[in-house]
Amino acid sequence: MKFRAVIRDSLSIKDFFNIVTTLSKCGKDVIFNALPDRLAVAVNVDSPQTALPMWCDLEKTVFFAEYVMDGLSESHNAIILIMKAANLVRVLSGSRNSETSYLKLKLMSKNIACLCLEMEIPSSTSAASRRISHDVPVMVVSRRDWLQYQLPSLPDFEMTVGVPGVRSIGGIIEAMRESSTVMSVQTVRNGTVSFISESPMAKISCHCRNQDVFAQGESEKITCKIESRRLALFLANSQLPCTDMRCSISEGHLVKFEVKVQDKVIMTCVIPATTE
Predict the structure, then answer these.
(1) What would you report as the CA-atom Rg of the chain, rounded to the nearest whole angstrom?
(2) DSSP single-letter state for residue 143
């Protein structure tokens, strides 16, 4: 098996750091699912009480200057790696410098399997740049266990509507979470997204009107009840300086939030309907 990827664009390097940091705040482990055409970076949701189903697809030709991947075999051409999120963020923290020349990711065997991260950053003491290399221990997932680490299969969504940026509604959702453990998310054909929290003492609503409608079925409005803490967790921990977010609802089933990182790079968070 072979995996090697290089990012040379400074904006993409910073976005990669922000993506990994966001995922690390929503789960203890990060999964790299390397496929021939893309790298899917996701949260390990083995512990559903503490992790959200979140991932970001990084397309080979869009995000990387170089991308080489030879999987297990021709019929099973993939590599799945699991690593501690905190270790990965610690190593990548040096890449936040806007003048970082490149970031290289390479799967290596050094007594144990490691993801070697190499970057070139400006030196604080001389005009020359410094080349830094770190090894992050990884677990290479066995073929027989691949199924449990696959990204979830999503249903058709009855409606998709734009939502103001994470920073615009994050504080509001956090305040609403305090009033109830359950929140209704509702989209309407006229371009309104509503977040509704009800308790025996009060009903609190946040209505985002005049949003773009990207997809709609025959229903006038679609609603799904989710756990308030899950939505608050996603919004509070997002490190993405985004202005473009979308909400898709499958009636009574789940809600999908998509945050635009850059062109053709989307962070996806799926929150299932609550049984409460």
Answers:
(1) 20
(2) G
Cβ within 8 Å of residue 183, ≥6 positions away: 173, 176, 177, 195, 196, 197, 225, 226, 227, 228, 231
Torsion of CA 87, 90, 93, 94, to 10 degrees: -100
C-alpha pair distances (Å), 95 with each of 17, 33, 47, 137: 7, 22, 29, 19
**Longest pairwise C-alpha distance within the chain:** 65
Of residues 48, 1, 56, 10, the one with CA closest to residue 27: 48
The pTM score is: 0.88
Coil, helix or strand at residue 244: coil
Summarize pLDDT for 59-107 with one digit per residue, the tens.
999 999 999 999 988 888 999 999 999 999 999 987 776 678 899 999 9
**Which strands form 221-227's sheet, in the order they lie side by side?**
203-208, 192-198, 182-188, 221-227
Distance CA 89, CA 223 (A): 36
Q: Are strands 129-137 and 112-122 parallel, antiparallel or unpaired?
A: antiparallel
Copy the structure tokens of residue 105. 């990711």
User: Which residues does residue 186 pair with via DSSP β-bridges, in sequence order?
Assistant: 194, 223
